[in-house]
Amino acid sequence: LTVDRRRDQEEQTGAIPSLGTEDQRLGMSLSAIPDEARQQLGLQADTTGVFVQDVAPNSLAAESGIRPGDVIVSANNRNMTQPSDVREEWAKSRQQKKPVLFRIDRQGQSLFVAVANS
């Protein structure tokens, strides 16, 4: 079930919008790293990245193994500091018809996840 939101709500939550009717959604809700999550995950105060709040079932993100609670540190070797950074990198990769390579921090471990966008 996909619920469409108004654009201003997407900006607040960091939800990745559909980039066109034929495009699949990445399927993640993103935010800055909340203080409580920073404490639970043992992240330092200076750790940067984008927090994955939720992942839609059967979305590209879910199928690639991204989970709620992950921290996206970089995408295609570009540091991510806010949800709009992820949106921009996703849009650029869609235009180039290339996958996005995310570097993720998951419970103190660094891993790479490629998300195909076709």
Describe what this molecule looks like in 3D.
The protein has helices at 7-13, 35-41, 60-64, 83-96, and strands at residues 28-31, 50-55, 71-75, 78-79, 100-106, 109-115. The protein has 118 residues and is an alpha+beta fold. It has one domain: PDZ domain (Pdz3 Domain). Strands 1, 2, 3, 4, 5 and 6 form a six-stranded antiparallel beta sheet that branches. The longest helix is centred in the last third of the chain and has 14 residues, at 83-96.
CATH structural class: Mainly Beta
Low-confidence stretches: 1-14, 16-23
User: Per CATH, what is the topology?
Assistant: Pdz3 Domain
CATH superfamily: PDZ domain
Structural class: alpha+beta
**Largest beta-sheet details:** 6 strands, antiparallel
Overall pLDDT: 81
Q: State the separation between the terminal residues, measured CA to CA.
A: 21 Å
The value of Rg in angstroms is 13 Å
Outline: globular
Number of helices: 4
What's the topology here?
Elements: H1 7-13, E1 28-31, H2 35-41, E2 50-55, H3 60-64, E3 71-75, E4 78-79, H4 83-96, E5 100-106, E6 109-115
Antiparallel strand pairs: 1-2, 2-3, 3-4, 3-5, 5-6
Features:
118 residues; alpha+beta; Pdz3 Domain; 6-stranded antiparallel beta sheet; 4 helices; 26% strand; globular; disordered N terminus
How would you briefly describe this protein structure?
The chain is of the alpha+beta class and 118 residues long. 28% of the residues lie in helices and 26% in strands. Strands 1, 2, 3, 4, 5 and 6 form a six-stranded antiparallel β-sheet that branches.
